[in-house]
Amino acid sequence: MRQYKFRKYCPEHYQEIENYELAKADNFKGWVCHHRNGEEFSKEWLLKNNMYYNRKDPHEFKFVTIDEHYLIHNKGKKHTEEWKDKMKGNKLHLGCKHSDECKSKMRAAKLGKHWTTINGKRVWYEI
Question: How many domains does one find in the chain?
Fold first, then answer.
């Protein structure tokens, strides 16, 4: 998380947030600025009561790793074996072998075409 993102939560004295130096040493990569009272109250409750942004006290926050943040919000719950199996089934078939028929269809679809990158997207065009 970059500095501009957590400054909206605590614009003053953000250097005093717990674990700030540890997060800064990692360039805030893999760290989350978390409301301390967010452990007790939901984000929706904090927003509704105007307590989410522009807090004055940096001690209301702490930097936690992404893994710790996950455990806070999921209260230490782990995925069930059934859910893990379901997630495994949704993965792409990376590294699978294509049949010769499938390969020829893919070649035919691209025959006479070339691609280039425009605005970060791959665009196919006729040669």
Answer: 1
